[in-house]
Amino acid sequence: ALADGNLEALASHHEPHSPEEKLMEFDYAEAGAPALREAFAAAWRALAQAGHAPAPILARTMAQAPRRILG
């Protein structure tokens, strides 16, 4: 869907937490993690393995399209 343009944008969810929230024991810590790095890496790998050039596709779907959509 990314390579053929059927997906207009690709994004990840990030919910920032304070340093205190991050230092809590795992069982008490808030859910969430900065997922942009992982999303980018997973998309890059999937596109490359499918024989596509990842850079222009990810630039379009993870940077240009979200900027256009969100202003």
Mind explaining what this structure looks like?
The structure is a single chain. This protein has 3 helices and no strands. It has 71 residues and is mainly α. α2 crosses α3 (54-70). The mean pLDDT is 85.
Counting DSSP H or I runs of 4 or more residues, the number of helices is 3
Kindly provide the radius of gyration, computed on alpha-carbon positions and rounded to a whole number of angstroms: 15 Å
Which stretches are low in confidence, meaning pLDDT under 50 for 5 or more residues running? none
What is the mean predicted local confidence, pLDDT? Answer: 85
Q: In which range does the helix fraction lie?
A: 40-55%
The general outline is elongated
Percent of residues in β-strands:
under 5%
Helix/strand class: mainly alpha
Report the biggest beta sheet as strand number plus sense, adding barrel if it closes. none
Measured between the Cα atoms of the first and last residue, the distance is 23 Å
Total number of strands = 0
Order of helices and strands: HHH
